[in-house]
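MODEL INPUT / OUTPUT PAIR
PAIR INDEX: 1
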Amino acid sequence: MQTQGKFILMNIDEFQQFLHTTIVTRKITHIQNHHTLIPSYRNFNGSNHFEKMKAMEADHIARGFGGIAQHITTFHDGTICLGRNMESKPTCIHLANTGGICIENFGNFDIGHDNMTNEQNKTIIKVNALLCSKFNLTPNTQTIVYHHWFRMSNGFRDGGKNDDDHKTCPGTAFFGGNTENDFTNNLLPLIIQEMAPLNVPANQPLPAIQIGVVQALILNVRTGPGTTFPVISKLKENDSVSILESNGEWDRIGTNQWVNSNYVALR
């Protein structure tokens, strides 16, 4: 987890922990999904998250929004950056911001442009699922909405049936398209599936997060706690990891991501 001013950069497990322990007093009725269009993947170099967040906020202030418009931004690498205070409504969809939580997905997901990475794909699914679980929302076309479903001029909703006076976001290629039918057929089932194991009682703590540092030149990341599980990625010496739980000589650092604890020192 990293912080610069109001902006907090984290991985999906840290976001889950943050959401589980955060109290939001205003009533949340729906989750908005957008894409940045510009900037897009070509403007992301893998480490300029904060630079892009500050640039977006400057643009939003210049347009009279009073600060960054969105609460949550997902990035190409699967990370999440918090921006707008969740107690404040977003300034993202005209006349449809009250009760909203806004997710801005970094990239241009119109047909023929950015191909969404697997990391961002998984993060978007889980962020929507976590928000639905947090605010007791049944996922459907009323509780999870796309910007494209609303006319820009008057906030009237027509589900994106007429492209006139609509933004394309979250993109014409976003999980198969940007209409209500596209959402229902493609993204909605994935969110429902992701929500199944998320019903953790509010008084039951999630696994504590400890920060570790890799002490090997190369450290294998496996799908389970043992050498019989397949290697899915590799970490480098001095990489930081979030330790979510331990099982013998193995630490879980993400969903189905385990490393040998003998090669991770606690910070």
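PAIR INDEX: 2
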Amino acid sequence: MERAAADDNLTTFHLEAGVAACHAVAPSFEETDWHAILRFYDQLVQLSDSPIFVLNRGVAVAMVEGPAAGLAVLDGIVNHPALARYYLLPATRGEFYRRLGEPGPARRCFEDKLQNTKSAPVRRHLQQRITALTATGES
């Protein structure tokens, strides 16, 4: 760590550590410094073409600018082959649609991954989201 800190080269590890530090020092979710996290993800996306960094940047954008802005970021990776079976992309899109008051697209996003995931905890989480939409009359 001392050698990494002494080096002038900025790496993805430094930036990911910055994101982790923002989360670690936040007294609560509401007090998380999403602007700083977004700056870290802006730099991460510049250093790496990882669709996971883009997805995470989309979350930070949504927290700073709102869910519509986050969806616009995610639209750029929605068909990325590396994310074809990655449940967090449609789950995140579903959450953004839910926050926008668009239950139909939200439900479709949640159901999409519910059918394609075998993880019991993930299935429970997605089913809870779908049930919550249904319980509030959002279908």
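PAIR 2 NOTE: The mean pLDDT is 90.
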